[in-house]
Amino acid sequence: MCNVGDDVEEEKAKFMQARTTVNLKNSVCVKCRTAKPQVVLQNQYPYCKDCFLSATVHKFKALLGKNRIAHPNEKVLIYHKTGHASTALLHFLRTGLDLTTPKKIRFEPILLFVEGDFKLSVQQRRLILQQVSEEAQRFGFRINYVCLTQYILDSTQLSSLICDKFDDVLIKENDAASIAGIMKKPNVTTQTEIIKLYEQRLLVDVAKFLNCKCIFTPDLGIDIASQLLTNVCLGRGEHIVFDTGTVDSRDSEVTILKPLRNFTIKEIALYNFFNGLEPVRFLAENVNPYKSIQNLMQKFVSDLQENYPATISTIVRTGDKLGVNKNVGEAKCLLCKAPLGTKPDTLSSSEATNFSHWVSTQTPNCGVSVRDRSKHILEAFNNADYGKYCFSCNQIQPFLCLREV
Amino acid sequence: MVENSLTISLGFGGGAELLFGNKKNISISLPKTQKQWTIGELLKWIKDNLLQERPELFIQDDSVRPGILVLVNEVDWELVDTVNYEIKSEDKIVFISTLHGG
Fold it and tell me: Most buried by CB count within 10 Å: which residue of A22, A279, B73, B88?
């Protein structure tokens, strides 16, 4: 019997529920159940200020404690950026270090600020550097600066690029042009991807140079969620675990941890507000969300989050269920450093993509039988062997002018 | 004597101050009208009188742009009926931008 339409009610239940307006007028804090709430999380849970702050700090510590990546007295490189997330991260670390209880943080954080806002004016970039330096000083942390442009142009001179005074950072008017010069007219998506790969490599290089075994990045839930979808779109699905998981262990010496991945921007901004912290901000130029896949994903996730407060956590949790490819050899992709897969017995999705591209671009020889035609095509097909690059990097590698990568 | 203006203070943070000539705190007096001042009305007033740059980064439709948090006397405005909150004298209303990437 036809039952189309019978399951409409059930269908509805499968989808995420849209934001519901909860009447919170006379509510009390969900945690202590006594105090008057001051904050609403996920559009429905009211918290009082004290419970909110202690829950936030607990969430940060829980993630650190669960992973135990940073050991006592070890140096940890903190990837410092402008904005709420980094400021909150510094505050979490400072309060953790200043504790006298056994919960005290015992590793030594070293900040790294990567100067890469080459779309801004030199004057603006100098101002940002100065504000970042003041912020680090306020928290009492040692900070290093690196100019991303100089690193991309010549990564072999790393030791001369790391400065501990912000005045020493080399900022040039034509940095944007220099960056464009290393690529062969890529689209914005590829350009963003290339710069990100360099940034990632720079972090690992600096960590090794400064003897840090661990790096903390300030990525929030929204960054993780949009990165995950970006990876899927760019054929980097295999690297989702590295790029979005709590721990990125693709480098044998340096581990990257994302201690803020379970936080929403609202939690972090309110944490900063209640602690009287002001992050370094600047007016960025308007970004066109349709210009690159990365921007589009960011917009897609944040727009969805607005009405469906479970969006980000659903994406992040789904990503957490993914595992790494077990069929990998010793070889690593020269660009993104992710382990390269070995040839599986069955056709992998990248090979299937290559095959269908191959088939659809061949001119069939109509003079022979269909059987011979397909036989000929099958024989002529040679599945590209990504000896040096992973599937995704293989697509962006032709856009790079530098040969050594 | 009945005062004929409503004095409140506004706070801007997280980058929202950059749209207001880099001022973090602004004290304002709103003229008393027949109607009660709500945050919705205040937003229109801010747009006409204070906002200096790129209004689209602050206002969207009749509310703040998504990504801007509003706190009334340190309380999330979602707890006080958002744009419909009726402003009282001496209220402190803070706008925090959480817009990503600058």
Answer: A279
